[in-house]
Amino acid sequence: MHASTPISSPFGEVPALEDGDVTLFESRAITQYIAHKYEGNGTDLILKDPIKLAIQTVWMDTENQRFDPPFSKLIKVALQENRGGQDVRQYEKKLENVLDVYEQRLTETKYLAGDSFTLADLHHLPGMHFLRSTKAKGWFQGRPHVRAWAADILSRPAWVKVAAMSPW
């Protein structure tokens, strides 16, 4: 298995992955494939119980539909890729609302999908890493459970290695 060139994606973008006869694009599809293929090696990132898996899927979809869109808008503004008078506060508010929902959830469980680290948490790593390097880090102060969760997931050894390569 190896990371492929952008041409492997029909959109000509990364990420893309080729593994034998399988060619995948889109990061969440790639992470699910890897988690299934390497189940039992390291941390199992996909829950097996149908109810727990459904809960995990809810939080994976929440990241994809609620956390990532405003985060992506804010990062483009922060990197000055998207100028034109966007209402940055609108995206900040959406993201703060998501963090409020996470705060409530994390009063009940250690991780979003339950008591173990799963893809629902892993998919947040790039966003949480970036947010903690901006003025948005203040958003964690009033949300102690989000702050503890972020500190936990961002301190995982594999992520620490990835983050060491980050410009943020």
UniProtKB/TrEMBL annotation:
<dbReference type="InterPro" id="IPR004045">
    <property type="entry name" value="Glutathione_S-Trfase_N"/>
</dbReference>
<dbReference type="Pfam" id="PF00043">
    <property type="entry name" value="GST_C"/>
</dbReference>
<dbReference type="InterPro" id="IPR040079">
    <property type="entry name" value="Glutathione_S-Trfase"/>
</dbReference>
<dbReference type="GO" id="GO:0004364">
    <property type="term" value="F:glutathione transferase activity"/>
</dbReference>
<dbReference type="GO" id="GO:0009407">
    <property type="term" value="P:toxin catabolic process"/>
</dbReference>
<feature type="domain" description="GST N-terminal">
    <location>
        <begin position="1"/>
        <end position="42"/>
    </location>
</feature>
<keyword id="KW-0808">Transferase</keyword>
<protein>
    <recommendedName>
        <fullName>glutathione transferase</fullName>
        <ecNumber>2.5.1.18</ecNumber>
    </recommendedName>
</protein>
<dbReference type="GO" id="GO:0006749">
    <property type="term" value="P:glutathione metabolic process"/>
</dbReference>
<dbReference type="InterPro" id="IPR010987">
    <property type="entry name" value="Glutathione-S-Trfase_C-like"/>
</dbReference>
<dbReference type="InterPro" id="IPR036249">
    <property type="entry name" value="Thioredoxin-like_sf"/>
</dbReference>
<feature type="domain" description="GST C-terminal">
    <location>
        <begin position="49"/>
        <end position="168"/>
    </location>
</feature>
<dbReference type="InterPro" id="IPR036282">
    <property type="entry name" value="Glutathione-S-Trfase_C_sf"/>
</dbReference>
<dbReference type="GO" id="GO:0005737">
    <property type="term" value="C:cytoplasm"/>
</dbReference>
<dbReference type="InterPro" id="IPR004046">
    <property type="entry name" value="GST_C"/>
</dbReference>
<dbReference type="GO" id="GO:0043295">
    <property type="term" value="F:glutathione binding"/>
</dbReference>
<comment type="similarity">
    <text>Belongs to the GST superfamily. Phi family.</text>
</comment>
<dbReference type="Pfam" id="PF02798">
    <property type="entry name" value="GST_N"/>
</dbReference>
